[in-house]
Each structure stands twice: as C-alpha cells, then as structure tokens.
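We emphasize that the prediction below concerns an isolated chain of 226 residues; any contacts that depend on oligomerization or on bound cofactors are therefore not represented. The input was used exactly as deposited, without trimming of termini.
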Amino acid sequence: MRIAPLVAPSAGAMQASFESNGLNVPLREAFKSTLFGGTGDVRAAISKAKSAETDLFMWIGYESDVIPMTSQLRELNVSAKYIFGTPPGWPLEFSAAPEAECVLGLIGFLPSLPTTDAMTFTANYRAMHNADPDNYAAALAYAQLWAYADAINAAGTTEQAEVIGALERLTFRSPMGEWSFGQSEISPIKVLMKVCGWSSNIKMAFAKSFIRQIAPLLNSKAATKP
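Result of the prediction step, given as a token string:
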C-alpha cells in the first residue's frame, strides 16, 4: 500500500512506523494548520499528494482543519481508496456534511460506547452540558483524575512512591475502558502518555450522517451514533 501523509511534526515517526510494517510512503508534505494562522487553503499540499497516486491519504491537524481539508480533497477529486484524518476532535456539524462520507479517523471516545462506565459518563455529561461530548478530552480528564484518586485511596497517602506503587498494581476503570500501568511505565510523564493510550483509540468512519465505530467493535450495538 502507498500512503501519503499530510501532517505536522509527528510525520517522521509515523512514516517510520508505516515503513517498518512494509508500507510504502512516497510523499510526506507539510501544511499550516488554521489553528496556527494558516489560511485553510491546502490545495497545493493536496495536489502533491494526489500526484503520488496513493492508496491512503492521511492527514493530522486540528478540528478547524477538518472541513477545509475534506472539502478540498473532494474538490480536487483525490482518488485514494482511503481518506484518514486524526484531529483531536471533529466539528459537530461534520457528520452531516457531504464531504464527510466514508472519511476514516481515530478518536479516544465516542458517546455511543456501550460499556457501563461510558454510558454513565455520557449521561452525566449530558445532564451537565445538555449535549454529548464532541471529543475525547472530557472523558480523558475524567479517566486521569479517577485513576489518580483511586491510586491515592489505595495507597492511603499522597506520598509519590506509594502512589506510584498503587498505579503499578491496580487496574482502573474509565469511560474508554480499563487502564493499567506496567512497572517500567510509571513516571509523571509516562502515566499521562499511557492514559492518553493511542493503542486503544477507536477507529471510526463517517457514513450518511452517522459516526460508525469500526474497531474495536465491542458488540453489534457499538457501531452507530444517531
């Protein structure tokens, strides 16, 4: 498979990961996110990627880049079999937009997750904000705080070494599933990275005004969000 990522500083590591798994990355092209003063016109970068005739077009940006990127992909008739985006959140109106059809992505949390912890968190969030969470940040913060609180309670103290020991021993429930930390992973930075847990991200696709969870499929009811 040939992949053309349009991406920010993580492009190098991502390319190395792809290539170590036998995938060909014929092009890596940078663009300036609208979050940092970009105009939103990414046609030049898209055109270069289009000329590489790749199977997968992948981009990393922010929520404000989603609609400019996907609409210009359609405008320029990019024919890649897969279009994959990884912003930290997706605009609420995007799922109903025609350019969203069959766009793939990663996200750390969906309100449609059918686990007890996810449903409880979503219900409480709706009660407080009268809306669903539109990205994973709220669920992530909730998971981090409860993991830390549970570790302190288990340790019976706030002493760092004791709390680290509790983090090493325990498994923590969260809206996104269970967290656990191996001995070599315990440090203030690594705890945060582990809780961010990219390996446990949800793969999803936009289709006909629905957000469809495609992996991991927890059960048949986990696949759609009204």
